[in-house]
Design brief:
Distance between the termini: 38 Å
Number of strands: 8
Enzyme class: hydrolase
Structural class: alpha/beta
Radius of gyration: 21 Å
Pfam family, one: SRP54
Number of helices: 12
Helix content: 40-55%
Shape: elongated
Strand content: 5-15%
Strand order of the largest sheet: 3-2-4-1-5-6-7-8
Protein name: Signal recognition particle receptor FtsY
Keywords: Cell membrane, Cytoplasm, GTP-binding, Hydrolase, Membrane, Nucleotide-binding, Receptor
GO cellular component, one term: plasma membrane
Length: about 325
């Protein structure tokens, strides 16, 4: 099917703006850690640990970062507080690099043996799942791809209605059977329809209940099995959508969902409305699942490919 470029570099401004609250909060806390200090000592490191944890980076990831800075301080004997920002920026960038986070090269529709390329979207209600699907559909369509949506979140009438609104807004076909329909049956019909239309991409919305993991697991397995029958290997991508503004709660959801199904990509939304953007760093590090997209605004193009270099750059500039 080919590899296509997705988002252009002009998104940097939108990224800077979207991370503004996180950046202000993070940098002002960082500045306070070094007040009256000329060198990085144990007290500065303690304060830095507090800053990272309170910025929703997460305890385990924070300790990893602190250990690395501590090792550098021990090795260099003297590290000035002026250097701290640069060192911290480098360590966060290294961490994201190591953890296979999505890169900027825009590879979004890899070559797959059987077309269409199928994305199954999971996540609890209210995280911005439907909006993410709509924005993705818009981006793919802008690239000249033929997109079909499938409304397999049939437990809430609102979920089906919202997806219909998005399909209409973006101008792409949708397959739906209304509320209470069998989700696997909707997925089956969607893939059959997409194949008949020679579609490039199919995006399937699924139910967002987590209170009963066994049910969720069974349901998602059923949907996957049905899709695999029509497009062998589908779904090619299982994308978990998380609300960044919930901080550590998003991380917990990521853990729970990864126990229920094989997730291979993450989208972290609503970063523009929160100071908890540090959660992207913790989730990238702890989950070992690449963060592929981040939502940094309301606009159609404000769902961006996660570029770790640009992200860290925006956080520290």
């Amino acid at each position: 099917m080919g590899i296509f470029n997705f988002f252009s570099k002009e998104k940097k401004e939108s990224l800077d703006k979207g991370l503004e609250k996180t950046k202000k909060s993070f940098l002002s806390k960082l500045t306070r850690t070094v007040v009256g200090k000329s060198r990085v000592d144990a007290e500065v490191l303690d304060n830095l640990e507090e800053v990272l944890i309170s910025s929703d980076v997460g305890v385990e990831t924070t300790l990893k970062i602190i250990d690395r800075i501590e090792a550098k301080v021990a090795k260099d004997k003297y590290v000035s507080t002026e250097e701290l920002n640069g060192i911290l920026k480098a360590e966060i960038a290294n961490l994201l690099e190591e953890n296979n986070s999505s890169s900027v090269d825009g590879i979004v529709i890899p070559e797959v043996e059987n077309t269409p390329y199928v994305i199954m979207v999971v996540g609890v209600n209210g995280v911005g799942k439907t909006t993410t699907i709509g924005k993705l559909a818009h981006q793919f369509k802008s690239m000249g791809k033929k997109v079909v949506l499938g409304a397999s979140d049939t437990f809430r009438a609102a979920a089906v209605d919202q997806l219909i609104i998005w399909a209409d807004r973006v101008g792409v076909p949708i397959v739906q059977q209304g509320m209470n329909a069998d989700p696997a049956s909707v997925a089956f019909d969607t893939l059959q329809s997409a194949k008949a239309q020679n579609a490039d991409v199919v995006i399937i919305d699924t139910a967002g209940r987590l209170h009963n993991k066994v049910n969720l697991m069974n349901e998602l397995s059923k949907i996957k099995n049905v899709m695999d029958k029509i497009v062998p290997g589908a779904p090619h991508e299982v994308l978990l959508v998380l609300d960044g503004s919930t901080g550590q709660n998003a991380f917990e959801q990521a853990k729970q969902f990864s126990l229920a199904t094989d997730i291979n990509a993450l989208a972290i939304t609503k970063l523009d409305g929160t100071a908890k953007g540090g959660v992207v760093i913790g989730i990238s590090d702890q989950m070992k699942i690449p963060v592929k997209y981040i939502g940094v605004g309301e606009g159609m193009n404000d769902l961006q490919l996660f570029d770790k270099v640009e992200f860290v750059d925006s956080l520290f500039n």
